[in-house]
Amino acid sequence: MNRVNLFLDIFGLAFLFFHALLCRWSYTRRKKPSLAYRIMIILISVYVFLDLAAWALDGNVFPGSRGLYTAILLLYFAVIGCIPPLWLIYCDERLQFSQKTRKRRVLLYLIFAEINLASLIPFPWLPIFRVTEENVYVRGPLYPVHMILSLSCIVLSLCLIFRRCKGLSPIQRQEYLALSMFLPPILIAFIIQAIAYGMSFLPICLSISAILSFLAEQEHLLRVDLLTGVRNRFSFEPQVTWLLTHTPYNHTLYCLMIDADRFKTINDRFGHSEGDRAVIFVARALQNTCEWNDMICRFGGDEFMVVGERFTEENVKQLVRDIHTALQEIQNEEGLPYRLTVSIGVALFDSNFSGTPDELLRVADTDMYKKKAEKKALDRGENT
Q: Three-class SS of residue 131?
């Protein structure tokens, strides 16, 4: 057995154990990651164990060794063929593309795994691998198909990441680019294994990628509100600071302060769990109406902030109307036992504005409380 590969597998297991400790420490305090991510990490762990078992069996002949080695290699290729599509699904979730098209893309990603599994059918004339009489693994002519499928998933995930980063501010782009750190170790492993036949660097590189993806996940969780999935308030100031210096001269910078109406009444009458649902519905309405490069932040409790740029003031007014319409649609779809409405304060500035994010926030906040006061006055007038 090659000692270098043994050490690589042992170090890979050590990295995975370290990853498990980090997960246990982190997920007791924060929300668990997506199902695709968790399955991917489990498969990476299984893959490292299978690689270790394969190297232990390679060249060792005993009764039933060839059948056992073949079964382990079949499972080995099946597992490694499922990891890249799972990474694609996880990337799609994190990049927050349209929910409607995501389902179709997930089916496309699973085709990669299906083709890989189909390539494992033991065709005698065109195998992906074969085991000799001396119980030694040899690559078959179909092996490049397995490599091409995996590399295609990597390239596609990079395309998705860079497509999402296009047009974003550096603050927004930084989080998405952190996802791409999963890929360099795997690319290095593929190159080494393609050149140096017999060396298995992929298990340890996958283990390193697992830790890098975990760190990217933690970076994501630090910037996101766990209840609603939108950004938290700590993302607001850096984004506004960047917009104040990078908004085109012919665009209008806007800031919306959104506050749910009669939120305390919802909590008192229907419970805090229903209050949480109301907050989630407000966030959903904002996500359905705002553009993908707008910054949506939960500012605290039932308050949200939206900052971005539009061509004209009328575009901003239309956005406000769309938010109210989206909330009404959610109200009808969910059959809520209360009326879910919001008060929206608007602050508009052009590219010549030289103030601070706090001043922008103060204007939007003042306008929001003015709208809320007008609603209360109207309610009192209707009641009398």
A: strand
- Contact between 76 and 47 (Cβ < 8 Å): yes
Query: Each residue of 145-181: pLDDT tens digit?
Result: 888 888 888 888 888 888 888 777 777 777 777 788 8
pTM recorded for the entire structure:
0.74
How many other CB atoms are found less than 10 A from the CB of residue 257?
A: 26
Q: 29, exposed or middle or buried, with CB in 10 Å at 0-12, 13-18, 19+?
A: exposed
Strand pairing class (252-260; 295-300) = unpaired
- Per-residue pLDDT tens for 226-273? 888 888 887 777 777 777 777 677 777 888 999 998 888 888 888 888
Question: What is residue 212's three-state secondary structure?
Answer: helix
Residue 257: beta bridge partners?
A: 305, 345
Which has the minimum average pLDDT: 27-41, 277-291, 326-340?
Answer: 27-41
Rounded distance between C-alpha atoms, residue 313 and residue 319, angstroms: 10
Half-sphere exposure of 18 (CA within 13 A, CB side): 15
DSSP string covering 308-334: EEESSHHHHHHHHHHHHHHHHHHHHHH
In whole angstroms, what is the distance from residue 162 CA to residue 281 CA?
Answer: 30
Write the CA distances from 103 to 38, 92, 106, 283, integer angstroms.
19, 10, 5, 21
Domains along the chain?
3-223 (1.20.1070), 231-383 (3.30.70.270)
Terminal-to-terminal C-alpha distance of the chain: 89
Q: What is the pLDDT of residues 265-301, one digit of tens each?
A: 888 888 888 999 999 999 999 988 988 778 899 988 8
Distance CA 255, CA 291 (A): 14
Which of the 8 DSSP states describes residue 181? G
- The larger pLDDT score, comparing residue 43 to residue 378, is at 43
